[in-house]
Design goal:
Length: 192
């Protein structure tokens, strides 16, 4: 019997016992957690459709957010971390997250299949980078592919989101979340 995996799904605490070590985060989200907002494209780490964000506390009590491909991330790697998907971005007042609102305003989505992945990569960038330049935005979003919109409006949206508010609900809860994760993690951290 293996130790339970404990993590935050958005802000909700989850504990999974006897997890299948071969189950990916994408499979778990779509088949067990009933959260199908994260999409499956290539299922081999190439297209970015499955992008989720994993938050992990640093030594200073802040959260480091990383965009990762859920199709190649295995469930046990979530222990002591926060898993954030496109389902969790709605703000407390019901508004879209700046990353989502900017994509709407810049017409950065057509069929929408790639959009949750772009949103999550932009969400991580929103937290990690302060108004990066166009080249840096291109580099950050290089792992997300779009087959129908064209990239210019998506890159425009990644610039625009910084004009749509200063911080979000995740920023407001950051120190509380760091404390919760530290308590969940205990001494047996598994690193992604
Ligand atoms: S589904 Fe394509 S990178 Fe995961
Ligand atoms: S909006 Fe269709 S693949 Fe990007």
């Amino acid at each position: 019997m293996s130790d339970p995996i404990r993590f935050l799904l958005g802000t909700s605490e989850r504990e999974i016992r006897d997890a299948d070590p071969n189950m990916t985060v994408l499979q778990w989200l779509r088949t067990r957690a009933e959260q199908p907002g994260t999409k499956e494209g290539c299922a081999e780490g190439d297209c970015g459709a499955c992008t989720v964000v994993v938050g992990e506390p640093d030594t200073g009590g802040r959260i480091r957010y990383r965009a990762v491909n859920g199709c190649i991330l295995f469930l046990p790697a979530l222990h002591g971390k926060q898993l954030i998907t496109v389902e969790h971005l709605r703000q407390p007042d019901g508004a879209l997250h700046p990353a989502q609102q900017a994509l709407v305003e810049c017409h950065g989505s057509q069929c929408g299949f790639c959009t949750p992945g772009f949103v999550m990569s932009m969400f991580a960038m929103y937290h990690n980078e302060d108004r990066p330049g166009r080249q840096r935005i291109q580099d950050v979003l290089a792992g997300n592919l779009c087959r129908c919109t064209g990239y210019r409006p998506i890159l425009d949206a990644a610039e625009r989101m910084y004009d749509l508010g200063d911080g979000d609900a995740f920023s407001a809860r950051e120190s509380e979340t760091a404390q919760r994760l530290t308590a969940l993690r205990g001494d047996d951290t598994l690193h992604v």
